[in-house]
TrEMBL record:
Pfam families: OMP_b-brl. Keywords: Signal. It comes from the Bacteria. This is Outer membrane beta-barrel protein. SUPFAM superfamilies: OMPA-like. Residues 1-22 form the signal peptide. It comes from Photobacterium pectinilyticum. InterPro entries: Beta-barrel_OMP (IPR027385), OMP/PagP_B-barrel (IPR011250). Residues 10-173 form the Outer membrane protein beta-barrel domain. The keyword Signal applies.
Length: 179
C-alpha cells in the first residue's frame, strides 16, 4: 500500500508541475521559430548531418507563411537551400497538432568526389518540398515536432550510393518556439 501511495503522490506532483493545455490555438499574428534536424551515420559518405531552420508568421488562424534555410553536410559534400514555405496546422482540443506544408527553395550542392564511385559537379536547382508532420505542445510556447518530407528538384542534387538523384525523402525531428 505504501508503494501505491508513493506512486500516486509522484503522479500528482508531476501533473501539477506541468500545466495542462486545453488545446492549442495558433492565432493570426503568432510567430514561430523552428529548428529541426537529423544525423545519418550510415550514409554513403560516412555521415549526413541535416539542419533545417525556419521563421514563420501566422497570416490567419492555423495558416503560416515564412522563410526557410536548410543545410546538409557530409564528409565530402554540402547542400544549402533557401526559400519560402507555407504550412497549415490542424489544431484541435489536444496538445497534438498535425500539419501539412509546402516549400519552394533554391538549392546548391557543392563538394569533392570523396570516396564515391562516380563524379559530380557543383549544381544549383529549384526544389519543391512537401511535408507532413505532427507537433506536441509541451507548453503554449514550445512544441516538439516530427516530420517526413519529400523534395524534388530541377537537377540532380541529392547524393546516394547509386549516384546523384533529383529527389529524396527525409525524416527530421525538432523543436518549434512560438511568440
Amino acid at each position: 500500500m505504501k508503494k501505491h501511495a508513493v506512486a500516486i503522490a509522484t503522479l500528482l506532483a508531476l501533473g501539477a508541475a506541468t500545466p495542462a493545455l486545453a488545446g492549442v490555438t495558433l492565432e493570426q499574428g503568432t510567430q514561430e521559430f523552428g529548428l529541426q534536424g537529423s544525423l545519418d551515420l550510415d550514409y554513403v559518405d560516412d555521415y549526413l548531418f541535416v539542419l533545417n531552420t525556419s521563421y514563420g508568421y501566422f497570416i490567419r488562424e492555423d495558416w503560416e507563411i515564412g522563410g526557410v534555410l536548410d543545410v546538409s553536410m557530409s564528409d565530402s559534400s554540402q547542400q544549402f537551400q533557401l526559400g519560402a514555405f507555407t504550412e497549415y496546422n490542424f489544431t484541435n482540443s489536444t496538445n497534438w497538432v498535425p500539419y501539412l506544408g509546402l516549400a519552394a527553395q533554391v538549392a546548391n550542392l557543392s563538394g569533392s568526389d570523396g570516396d564515391f564511385d562516380f563524379d559530380f559537379e557543383d549544381a544549383t536547382a529549384m526544389t519543391l518540398k512537401f511535408a507532413g508532420g505532427i507537433k506536441y505542445f509541451v507548453n503554449p510556447h514550445v512544441a516538439i515536432s516530427a516530420e517526413v518530407n519529400y523534395s524534388i528538384a530541377t537537377d540532380d542534387i541529392n547524393v546516394t550510393k547509386d549516384g546523384l538523384e533529383d529527389s529524396f525523402t527525409r525524416f527530421v525531428f525538432g523543436t518549434r518556439f512560438y511568440f
